[in-house]
Write a structure and sequence with these properties.
single chain; alpha/beta; Rossmann fold; 8-stranded mixed β-sheet; two-stranded antiparallel ribbon; 10 strands; about 35% helix; about 15% strand; globular
Length: about 280
């Protein structure tokens, strides 16, 4: 991608996942972080948590973050859940909302029922308290998608959705919203208007530059605030702080963690020197 066409102040986090094999796709719950998750993957999510917190530090009240991708298969749903779990670990009140009313998956990954949820509330069939689910992890709640409706765009863009987020903002410190891919349907773009920002999930050796460029173009047109990108299945050693050794050999199976940021117009000399050091 041409650097001149990139938006300013973009942060990138490299996170390795196991989304490449067919077997892992069939057992998607294994991609949700747990005690068995490799240390470097956990640290990558912690680095993402830190960057998100700093990016939204000036925002008051509940921080509402849209998680999306340019196309399907890039790992946005598992990334959304893992970010929420990572935030809940530090004691803040966190909610995950499945706003993908076409192909919902959050309930599957968290092993929850999906008899009623977001769509039921927006359509006026059920009340919020009857749909909120307390997960097994402390400080982490979930609002599943609910029944698949015939009019998802109308529900997401309704006043009821705005009112719902306003109500939830009084109960939670962070809300992470999983949405359909930006280049397929418009729900993600609509939600950026009532949220604090959006994070785009990409996947190495899968996501095409032209798809990301198209998504960024749509977000810029909608005046959305792009908080950054998260890269799944990262293999580029350029972003590694170091390697681990096993039996005398270096192992680079997972990219550890790292990020870069840039501001081409207003970066100070110190910031530029740090940026150069990070890239090297």
């Amino acid at each position: 991608m041409n650097m001149k066409n990139k938006p300013k102040k973009i942060k990138q986090i490299n996170i390795s996942s196991d989304t490449t094999s067919l077997a892992s796709k069939m057992n998607s719950e294994k991609r949700i972080i747990s005690q068995d998750t490799p240390f470097d993957v956990i640290e990558a999510y912690k680095a993402a948590r830190t960057n998100i917190m700093f990016s939204l530090n000036h925002e008051k009240g509940c921080k509402k973050v849209v998680i999306s991708s340019s196309t399907a298969g890039e790992g946005k749903t598992t990334t959304c859940i893992n970010l929420a779990k990572t935030f809940a670990e530090i004691g803040v009140r966190v909610l995950v909302i499945d706003a993908d009313l076409r192909a919902p998956r959050v309930h599957r990954y968290l092993k929850l029922t999906n008899e009623k949820g977001l769509s039921n509330i927006l359509a006026g069939f059920d009340k919020l308290d009857d749909c909120l689910v307390h997960t097994s992890q402390e400080n982490l709640d979930c609002l599943t998608s609910g029944a698949i409706p015939p009019n998802p765009v109308e529900l997401i863009s309704s006043d009821a959705m705005t009112d719902l987020l306003a109500t939830l903002s009084e109960k939670y410190d962070y809300i992470f919203i999983d949405t359909p891919p930006l280049n397929i349907v418009t729900e993600g773009l609509l939600l950026t208007k009532i949220c604090n920002g959006i994070i785009l999930v990409t996947r190495q050796k899968y996501t095409m530059y032209k798809m990301v460029e198209r998504a960024i173009s749509s977000l810029k047109f909608a005046n959305a605030k792009i908080l950054g990108f998260i890269l799944n299945d990262a293999e580029d050693d350029k972003y590694m702080y170091g390697t681990y050794k096993s039996r005398g050999k270096k192992r680079n199976r997972y990219v550890r963690y790292g990020y870069y940021s840039y501001d081409r117009t207003s970066a100070s000399k110190d910031d530029k020197s740090k940026e150069t050091a990070a890239k090297n």
